[in-house]
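Dear support,

I submitted the protein below through the web form. The confirmation email said the job was done, but the results page showed an empty box. After a refresh the structure appeared. I'm attaching both so you can tell me whether what I see now is the final result or a partial one.
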Amino acid sequence: MTTSSRKGPIIDPGLCRCCGAVKKCRLLNVEYEWLGQKEVYSDMFVDTFGLLLSHLDGEAVERVICATCVTRLRDASAFRRQVLRCEEKLLQARILIGTDLEPTTEIKQESDDTELKEETTPLSKLGHLDDDIDMDTADTACQDDIDPENLVLIKGEPPKTKAATKKLKVKKEKKSTKVKKKGRKRESKEDKRESKDDKRAKQEMMERMRRMEEKLDQLQQLDEQEQLPPKPPKSRVDNEHKSFHNTATIVENSLVCPFDTSFSDYYCLYCRQVHTDPNKLREHTLTHDPVNFKDSLINKKLPQIDISRIDCRLCAEHIEDINVLKEHLVNVHGKLIYDVKNEFLKFKLTSNNLTCIECGSVFSFFHALKKHMAEHFGTCICDVCGAHYFEERMLILHQKTHQKIEEIYPCKDCGKSFKSKHSRNLHETRTHKKEPAYQCPKCDAILFTYTLRYRHMIEVHGEERLFQCDHCDRAYDSRKSLREHNRRFHLKIFKHQCDLCEKRFYLPSRLREHMAIHTGERNFRCENCGKTYPRLRGLKVHMQSHSSEKKYRCMLCNASFTQNVNLKNHVKRQHQNMDIEESGFHE
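What the results page shows now:
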């Protein structure tokens, strides 16, 4: 079954192509949005692993991936980008080292004792760079480039050739004569100049190293900013954290009852067991350890808490108000409670009518009460009519009702139109494909309709779904049936009135049957005897007379009849002093 969300289509259930699990899945070759960025999972497989997946143009169920595998794919893609960025930084650093940090050599000659010396900046001062330089190669290059006439001795070693030795001796004699004339003042000035040049070279080297470190730090900061997702406003994060902390502290240290709902059914937050009676829900919830509350919340929804009983778990204190409980936990037990209001939705669940704690409004069903609670605490507000909702997706659905152009989704097989893709997909699945669409949450059974799944949960899994009428002894297995019973027999809400007489009816079908009395039409004919009736109900009663089975028995004299009306007439004639209800007739 395919559904659509604000971020892309969802296949539920789907068989993941990557791990083989059956769960909610996404399409591999469809664009989705995550943290404000677009992503196509098939392209990510190609970029990260070089894998070109097959059958991406087939059916939707054949090209899906689950959320777990999507997370692993994102991690792999992020790791690949991290490695590439580190390689890029390393290459940039090598380029900077090759251009800015070339060792400089100064060749100087001195005339002490007629010897020449070469002063060179040591390569060891460059730190780790000396490991990357081949010293043998450097020596060879120096020997090839030096002219014999300007030969320089390294580390006081004598020249190796005789010709070079002779030339050096001549130069030494000339230099020595010049040095003697200039005197020692010249020597002291040259020494000072050499020391200044050394200091200047060292300072330039340190400055280059400092600039390179700054560039590397900037690259690292940019890399970290790209990897981190955008952070929400700090105040919002703090409020959400404080609200969640307060809720968890209250649940773990008091007897309040957290729960989840689906329409008007109550679910245990810890094990998802369904309950229709709030008293049984509270008894069942006490069997679970409240420490697991933090791990049981679904999709970070606003928690729903039943505060019918707020006693402290840590002592025998009886408490009836949430604010009093907070003060008690802080002052007596030393718990940390932040100054935050409306951490969760508060309810006092009852078997009958439900009352809003905020304004006192009364509702017959929980679904109506929760919808009303959005008016007090809903943060998603419609700009057109001001309606409040807890979730943005519900607001989006509501806003479509204000659009003048209604979207219509026709069936490709029969042309029937539907107001939503979900309704069209259900129609195609059940009518044309003949496939079941409703998965049982407790077993592998898949049923064709919601009603069949509802019956399946009662008959197979033994779920207790019995709704007792407050005004009579009738009981029903669904809230909808109980609501229809109350409106029809006790509230007598008859909205459909006949234009020719004063009779009113609950259902429009009953009004149409009634109109046959005024028109004289008798459109319902018995196939066995040919009798006609103006209403279908009359024909159904008549068809019982052709059956040999006598299902209606009198409990007073054991007489049996094929029709219920005959049993009633029998009781009136034979048992005049007995009430019909007291006769105990049954089917």
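Response: this is the final, complete result; the empty box was a page-load delay. DSSP finds 18 helices and 27 strands in the chain.
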